[in-house]
């Protein structure tokens, strides 16, 4: 399948450009969109991948986060993929907000019905290759990763399993221990089947015991007024697991903040600075 890459939108912002693209994904077997913020820079820009949460597309972060201000001043490109395959018309794919379309969970599904749901390979392999082949202004060898909620789960797990590929990770309100929360259990049962060992391969709290030779501190922000904090996100479980192996972690509980992009917009500058430091090394 030819990538058929085409630009479908462009807007100037903080002297750089938000650009949106469509291409044919071989990994997912469908047409996909993604967004890039290109900072104003005479040098090749390092890349910060942003993975979004349930129900999102590649546009939510670009429109709502305000991340471009800090990305522009630090000279970092923002790369934002979609959250699942789309347009495959698999029966039941859009029946609920937390599974199927808009809910890829950044894993490679093993169940036949959901075999196109391979967002892990899309983010880790296909997208970086597409970027390096088509955008000479990006330095894809210098990359970091971040995300929100389901995307925070994606960022943490992808980072831990690919420490050679990413310089740093951060997350907003990540689903930090999905094998022990309703969202994760529903998604993993359907995508991965009943083999609990397979689930652990996509759970940051399980992975940190195996992959903890980290070059940068993990940064997590969590709003204390987040409705999903007590039952779905479980950052305390991840924190305990990090302590056991002395993995460098900073969890900041933010009083009064919820699960929304208002929360993300408030602290995104800190996250970009965190990654800028790691990407400069």
Automatic annotation (TrEMBL):
<dbReference type="InterPro" id="IPR014186">
    <property type="entry name" value="S-formylglutathione_hydrol"/>
</dbReference>
<comment type="similarity">
    <text>Belongs to the esterase D family.</text>
</comment>
<comment type="function">
    <text>Serine hydrolase involved in the detoxification of formaldehyde.</text>
</comment>
<protein>
    <recommendedName>
        <fullName>S-formylglutathione hydrolase</fullName>
        <ecNumber>3.1.2.12</ecNumber>
    </recommendedName>
</protein>
<dbReference type="InterPro" id="IPR000801">
    <property type="entry name" value="Esterase-like"/>
</dbReference>
<dbReference type="Pfam" id="PF00756">
    <property type="entry name" value="Esterase"/>
</dbReference>
<keyword id="KW-0963">Cytoplasm</keyword>
<keyword id="KW-0719">Serine esterase</keyword>
<dbReference type="InterPro" id="IPR029058">
    <property type="entry name" value="AB_hydrolase_fold"/>
</dbReference>
<keyword id="KW-0378">Hydrolase</keyword>
